[in-house]
Amino acid sequence: MTQSKLYKLRKNPLTDEVSCISKDNGNDRFTIIPINEDNTDYQDYLAWVAEGNTAEAAD
Amino acid sequence: MSTLKVNKLRDTAGSADAIVLDPNGGAVLAGVTTVTSVKVGAAVTISESGIEATGVGITCANLNGGQFGRRNLIINGAMQVAQRGNTSSVTSGYGGADRFKFDRSGAAVVTLRQQGVGNSPTDQGFGFCQQIDVTTADSSLAAGDYALLSYRFEGQDLQQLKKGTANAQQVTLSFYIRSPKTGTHIVELVDQSNSGRHVNKAYTVSVADAWEKKTVTFPMETSNTITNDNARRMDLNWWLAAGSTYSSGTLQTDWGADTNANRAVGQVNCMDSTDNNFYITGVQLELGSQATAFEHRNISEELKLCTRYFQKLQATTGSGNDNPIAVMANFTSTHAYGRIPFFNGIMRTGPSLTASDGSYFSNGASYTGLTFGVGGQSESSIEVNIQASSGNWTAGHAGWYRGGSFELSAEL
């Protein structure tokens, strides 16, 4: 299990539905990842989840 | 018909032989010979109209001593484009020159830099190169340790290889490297369409810390086609270090199933000291068995090709009101929305967004501590929403994100 990355779900305030995932890169840098299966950052997130990890829930 | 037996023919007024006959049936013609057409076997005809070749066609190294156009399958092979800038503390990711990714397992940490003329093989026509500077060494490789420099291809860009068909074509890789180590280095192709099938070739570095040109030809297999889409379907990897997991077998010099032990047999450890620097440029992958002159492209064209995978929207220096990156609308008192078109070009897919060092300015106030989100996105634009950590702005007003940068990534 890898915990070196921290993911947090984010909601679209208009729809109140999860629309993206925030990845903490350290040093106050965050990558916002769309829910898009062609996006390799999203693929990495799915692989991280498949390893048994869970993202922080959306606010 | 009788046979005229002579050794040489000469004009009656001439001073030198025009034709010298060979006892084995050949002939050597001196001076200018004019003929209507010459046939070489059944495949090649040379005439006043030109050269007509069937079958294998023409194999040659250059055109008028220079490059052929549109042969290089690699984007940014001359390392001209470096949108991210130099990047330190890299264990996996991009930095320095676009499109080339570093990956490792183990202790090694590197800085990735685009270097200029002072470190590049300018005598070979290259003003830039990619530097991999080892900042944390991995001097004692564990079995599973490795380090790689990778280039990833979309499947739709590789259909011309005809992999998986009876007409599959071999490809030739050429590049310039400056390695801190002499000896065996490994480069490989990995087919991501077919469970990581791979083919691996060794090349030898003769002199440490000196530029050398290397050429490697990979076979292509007639089975296992490459999926024709926009996903990562083939990797080109330069091994930089390999533990026994990747080096304890027999080097797989023809295509075969994924077998880690056969991938990097003999690879020297370029990660074993913080004194080590690995440089590379002039990367070209092309059809056929002949390496041709490097296909130089101008910076505008190369940048355009790179922006399919990564774009950086950078404010000009300073953080004043004249440095907006994105104009937004305050949809509510806590959230602003905007849609950012990718003015630099269509991207491979909807990208990820990394924003840094900026602030949101609206109605005379500046807001920091921003939280970003993305919504509907495509290959041509992305919806961005911003929320400040404290304070409210006025709904219905406009604002803009200024200073800092937006990085959009659709890498493979």
Q: Top keywords for this entry?
A:
heterodimer; A: 1 helix; 39% strand; B: 412 residues; six-stranded antiparallel beta sheet
Order of helices and strands of chain B: EEEEEEEEEEEEEEEEEHEHEEEEEEEEEE
Helix content range of chain B:
under 10%
Mean pLDDT of chain B: 93
Q: Structural class of chain A, please?
A: alpha+beta
Strand order in space, largest sheet of chain A: 1-2-3
Mean pLDDT over all positions of chain A: 89
Gap from first CA to last CA of chain B: 72 Å
List low-pLDDT spans of chain B.
none
Strand percent estimate of chain B: 35-45%
Structural Rg of chain A: 11 Å
Strand content of chain A: 35-45%
Shape of chain A: globular
What is the number of helices of chain A?
A: 1
**Rg measurement of chain B, Å:** 28 Å
Walk me through what this model shows:
The complex is a heterodimer of chains A (59) and B (412). Chain A is an alpha+beta fold and 59 residues long. In chain A, 19% of the residues lie in helices and 39% in strands. Chain A contains one helix and three strands. Chain A has one helix spanning 40-50, and strands spanning 6-12, 17-26, 29-34. Chain A has a three-stranded antiparallel β-sheet with strand order 1-2-3, with helices on one face. The N and C termini of chain A lie far apart (25 Å). The mean pLDDT of chain A is 89. By secondary structure, chain B is mainly beta. Chain B contains two helices and 28 strands. Chain B has a seven-stranded antiparallel β-sheet with strand order 24-23-27-20-21-26-25, with no helix packed on it. The longest helix of chain B has 8 residues, at 299-306. Chain B starts with 7 loop residues before the first strand and ends with a strand. The mean pLDDT of chain B is 93. Chains A and B meet through strand 1, strand 2, strand 3 and helix 1 of A and strand 22, strand 25 and strand 26 of B. Strand 3 (29-34) of chain A pairs antiparallel with strand 22 (352-356) of chain B.
